[in-house]
Specification:
The structure is a single chain. The protein is mainly α. It has one domain (14-74). It is 67% helix and 0% strand. The longest helix is centred in the middle third of the chain and has 33 residues, at 14-46.
Length: 83
C-alpha cells in the first residue's frame, strides 16, 4: 500500500519535503542494488576482465553516501520565512 499524505501535497511543506527526499533516496538505493547486483553477476559469470565494475560500484556508492549525508544531516526542512 503506498503511503498516503493527510493533506494536499505541497513542496513548501517541510514534512512533505522530508518524506519526498527520503522516498527519492530509497528509489536511488533500490536502483543501485538492482543495477549493481546484475553487473556483478555478469562480472562473475563471464570471467572476463571487467575491472571497471569496481569503479562503477565504488563511485556510485560514494554518491549514495553523499546523498544520505545530505538528507540526514545537511538538508534544512524548517519552515521558510516570508519577507
Amino acid at each position: 500500500m503506498p503511503p498516503r499524505w493527510p493533506r494536499e501535497p505541497d513542496r513548501k511543506d517541510p514534512a512533505y519535503r522530508r518524506l519526498d527526499d527520503r522516498m527519492n533516496f530509497a528509489i536511488h538505493v533500490a536502483t543501485f542494488a538492482a543495477f549493481n547486483s546484475g553487473l556483478w553477476f555478469f562480472y562473475l559469470f563471464a570471467h572476463s576482465d571487467w575491472d571497471w565494475t569496481k569503479w562503477v560500484t565504488g563511485v556510485w556508492a560514494i554518491l549514495l553516501l553523499a546523498h544520505l549525508i545530505y538528507i540526514a544531516a545537511i538538508a534544512d526542512y524548517s519552515l521558510e520565512k516570508n519577507g
